[in-house]
Task: inverse folding
């Protein structure tokens, strides 16, 4: 019964994930996977299906943000090289980790996300002025960003998240990018990372395609809708919505696992 409810709710869950995911530069997996788990879907089914849907979050509204000049394609390509390697490693390790361990890791990731988003919001979008940004940030900071991107890729494949919850703070805190640029660039990156995880999960026969595609329909529409208001929505409101969601659902999932 729970699985049937999850399939029927897929487009709505995907829409919310795509909408919020675009506003925060995340894939939306941190919304889809917890909700599916709470509906009774195994995390080992929910995570690969979520990766399919994250590609909809990435593509929806991306052209509009690119036209506005917010997407740094070269930076995304460099960081994604590390993320793709991390996703490949994470998808391989996925088969050897127990379900309760994955649920506990997801809960911890959500709680950590609330802290990262709060820190990110304090910086503001204009604090990067006067600093080297992006690929000009210097070797030590770029190396740190590459290491964090590898970790984000592994987390994406193992937990069904796009990795943007790690990538956006990295681009703002380490590489000094303005908020809207980091969010928009991350939107492109999470789709590439998710696609890598989908390919490997599909190879091992782990993808429940009907569930994934039902979620993808919602994420694409939600992302397109959200991209139109990304620039104007107050950041403090995004911080409250995101941090509150991560704390509540992260604590709930962690309690289930423990």
Result:
């Amino acid at each position: 019964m729970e699985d049937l409810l999850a399939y029927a709710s897929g487009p709505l869950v995907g829409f919310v994930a795509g909408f919020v995911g675009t506003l925060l530069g995340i894939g939306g997996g941190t919304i889809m996977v917890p909700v599916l788990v709470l509906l009774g879907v195994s995390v080992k089914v929910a995570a690969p299906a979520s990766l399919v849907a994250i590609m909809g979050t990435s593509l929806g509204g991306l052209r509009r943000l690119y036209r506005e000049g917010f997407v740094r394609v070269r930076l995304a390509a460099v960081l994604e090289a590390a993320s793709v390697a991390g996703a490949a490693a994470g998808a391989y390790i996925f088969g050897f980790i127990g379900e309760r361990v994955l649920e506990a890791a997801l809960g911890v990731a959500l709680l950590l996300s609330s802290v990262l988003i709060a820190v990110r919001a304090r910086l503001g979008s204009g604090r990067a002025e006067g600093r080297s940004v992006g690929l000009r940030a210097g070797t030590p900071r770029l190396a740190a960003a590459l290491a964090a991107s590898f970790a984000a890729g592994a987390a994406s494949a193992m937990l069904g998240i796009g990795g943007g919850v790690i990538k956006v703070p990295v681009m703002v805190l380490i590489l000094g990018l303005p908020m809207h640029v980091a969010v928009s660039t991350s939107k492109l990156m999470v789709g590439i990372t998710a696609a890598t995880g989908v390919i490997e999960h599909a190879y091992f026969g782990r993808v429940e395609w009907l569930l994934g595609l039902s979620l993808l329909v919602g994420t694409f529409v939600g992302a397109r809708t959200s991209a139109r208001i990304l620039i104007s929505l107050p950041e403090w409101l995004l911080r409250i919505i995101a941090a509150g969601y991560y704390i509540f659902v992260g604590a709930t999932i962690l309690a289930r696992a423990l």
In short: Residues 99-123 form the longest helix (25 residues).
